[in-house]
UniProtKB/TrEMBL annotation:
Keyword field: NADP, Oxidoreductase
Database matches in PANTHER family: QUINONE OXIDOREDUCTASE PIG3 (PTHR48106:SF18), QUINONE OXIDOREDUCTASE PIG3-RELATED (PTHR48106)
GO molecular function, one term: oxidoreductase activity, acting on NAD(P)H
Enoyl reductase (ER) domain mapped to chain residues: 22-331
Superkingdom classification of source: Bacteria
Keyword Cell cycle included in the entry's annotation: no
Organism: Actinomyces johnsonii F0542
Keyword rRNA processing among record annotations: no
Protein name: GroES-like protein
């Protein structure tokens, strides 16, 4: 068993801590005591962490179950620093995500994070940490949406609504890699070429995509990944074939509910509406490893990456809120 006093570890660490919700000004870099993992938990030295819309919701008071002060971050990538039970060796490369990170307990916007061992996924890769840090939660949601949410099969068609988001780009790339016909939307002309580079046929999104999509797919597409949310959901349903599926996996618009929802008016005959929101346990280790290997070999390009030092976390959040960058924002402690 490892000595949990760990005399070689620093006594303190830096982290981005949210004192209360309501403003990005409440997210500050602070020095905190080094966290010690209880039995069943491990400490990860964070080498990179992805930024997610979830944390934007937390900052602005849209997340349920938050207690304060709280270190944000629903995912982190790094190396095992301490396992009190000696099950995971120090230095083992690992990622972690979800499970209450950044909301119920302190998350990945830090130099170290303590998480349950059950939400650790190990891997081996020589990719730069900013690349590795862009993958875990985005891949988990993209893979889970394509398999559990949509049951997409090779050769079928997919529409990604909100295609230039990190999740949209990753899902489009994975679907194209499966041999599917992929269509993806962007509200900006600048995003169309990026979508094309991920193997998708780009569509400028003016809120009325279904009529144009059916020019290419007269019967409608087999599957739709809805990432924008309520404002485009009805049009996404209208673009879907009979016995096709729309999976609601994101809310980039921050519109979460449908007032006076009348299903028989909204949902076309025979079209299925599902959702997907997964956990670390929903991403098989072999899928993570295979994806990292394909990125490293140059056979798969998931995301443009924009990295920020921990000290610039407030600027990163402002850029995420404004949509300044297309792709994945990654923090480097």
């Amino acid at each position: 068993m490892t000595d949990i006093t760990d005399s070689d570890a620093p006594a303190t660490m830096l982290a981005a801590q949210l004192s209360e919700s309501g403003s990005i000004g409440n997210l500050r870099i602070v020095e905190l005591p080094m966290p010690v993992p209880p039995d069943g938990w491990v400490r990860l030295k964070v080498m990179a962490f992805g930024l997610n819309r979830s944390e934007y919701h937390s900052v602005h008071g849209l997340a349920e179950g938050m207690t304060f002060p709280r270190i944000l971050g629903i995912e982190a990538s790094g190396v095992i620093d301490l396992d009190p039970e000696g099950i995971l060796e120090p230095g083992t490369q690992a990622v972690t995500m979800m499970g209450g990170m950044g909301r119920l307990f302190d998350g990945g916007y830090a130099q170290y994070v303590v998480v349950p061992r059950t939400q650790i996924i190990t891997f081996h890769s020589s990719l730069p940490w900013e690349v590795i840090g862009s993958v875990p939660e985005t891949l988990q949601t993209a893979y889970g949406t394509l398999t559990t949410g949509l049951d997409l099969q090779p050769g079928q068609s997919l529409l990604v609504r909100g295609g230039t988001s990190a999740l949209g780009l990753a899902t489009a790339a994975l679907a194209a890699d499966m041999g599917c016909r992929v269509y993806a939307t962007s509200r900006r002309e600048a995003g169309l070429e990026l979508l094309r580079s991920r193997g998708a046929t780009p569509l400028l999104d003016d809120g009325k995509v279904a009529p144009r999509l059916r020019e290419a797919e007269p019967s409608g597409v087999h599957t739709v990944l809805e990432l924008v949310g309520v404002p485009t959901l009805r049009d996404s349903l209208a673009a879907t074939a009979v016995h096709g599926t729309v999976c609601f996996s994101g809310m980039l618009s921050d519109s979460w509910t449908i007032p006076n929802f009348y299903p028989m008016d909204w949902i076309p005959n025979g079209v299925r509406l599902t959702t997907y929101s997964g956990q670390a346990q929903d991403l098989p280790a072999e899928v993570l490893q295979r994806t990292l290997d394909r990125i490293e070999s140059g056979n798969l390009d998931l995301l443009p990456i924009h990295s920020y030092p921990l000290a610039d976390i407030a600027q990163a959040h402002e850029d995420m809120a404004s949509g300044r960058h297309m792709g994945k924002l990654v923090g480097l402690p």
